[in-house]
Design a protein that fits this description.
alpha/beta, Rossmann fold, three-stranded antiparallel beta sheet, about 20% strand, binds 2-amino-2-deoxy-6-O-phosphono-alpha-D-glucopyranose
């Protein structure tokens, strides 16, 4: 794994924004579409702000970009302020020139009976566009990626999942109390993520230091799903000093 440590999250986010810019330039020159796998949570917020600034400065265009988000709570109305649909529209999609029909997010609105086919279609849509070029990831304090909670296997695909207690505790403040945090979600699987050609995982702050050490250097295990990233040939880990505090990189 390629580990990049920055003085702060702003510089780390700038680095990732430039990587995305370079990928878009390279592929659009060949008139190819660019397929991005996107993450939510607090970690990528600065990155999205940087990409929006680059767009406003005329330095980047998302006209040939297709995106697939990792996950969404279920049940969850797309209009809810807690939905990842709302998050992505507000922070990124509505502020750039991406075509709405090119932005895919698992739906929190599908009926329970339709979830399985919805998940299968989501996987197929990714295959149909040729697979994800670059997958962005954050990491949960329990080692989840997307909503692949402890216990998720390496062959897991997009599916209905139960949220881990720790994940619900971490989300409680944003939802105004743990009782308001959904118990379920739809998430891309570990296999879906590992099929991406390139993966960029970002982590900021001391709260992530322990799980970053365990996931980058610990035993590969479903107990900490991010450890499966060790098996991927093209992973970039982007950290600030605090998140990197427990790893020895020399
Ligand atoms: C959330 C998301 C993940 C995200 C992680 C970390 O619950 N489902 O995709 O990476 O938890 O969140 P944060 O970036 O806010 O620390």
């Amino acid at each position: 794994m390629n580990i990049n440590i920055f003085e702060n999250s702003e510089l780390g986010s700038q680095f990732v924004a430039e990587q995305i810019q370079a990928l878009i330039k390279k592929k659009t020159k060949l008139t190819e579409e660019v397929i991005l796998g996107l993450a939510t949570g607090s970690t990528p917020k600065e990155l999205y702000k940087k990409l929006v600034s680059m767009y406003k400065a005329g330095e980047i265009s998302f006209e040939q970009v297709i995106t697939f988000n990792l996950d969404e709570y279920h049940p969850m109305s797309h209009d809810s302020e807690h939905s990842y649909h709302h998050f992505m529209n507000q922070i990124f999609f509505d502020a750039v020139d991406i075509k709405a029909e090119n932005t895919w997010i698992p739906s929190g609105e599908v009926e329970k009976a339709q979830i399985e086919s919805h998940c299968r279609e989501y996987e197929q849509q990714i295959v149909d566009v040729g697979g994800i070029d670059l997958q962005l990831l954050g990491i949960g304090t329990n080692g989840h990626i997307g909503f692949n909670e402890p216990g998720s296997t390496i062959d897991s695909v997009t599916r209905y999942v139960e949220l881990d207690e720790q994940t619900r505790i971490d989300a409680a403040a944003a939802f105004g109390g743990i009782d308001n945090v959904p118990r379920n979600a739809i998430s891309m699987g570990i296999d879906t993520i590992l099929k991406a050609k390139e993966i960029v995982l970002m982590a900021w702050g001391s709260g992530k230091a322990e799980i970053i050490r365990d996931c980058l250097f610990g035993e590969i295990t479903a107990v900490k799903p991010a450890t499966f990233l060790q098996k991927h040939p093209n992973v970039h880990i982007v950290l600030d000093r605090e998140a990197a505090a427990l790893i020895d990189v020399d």
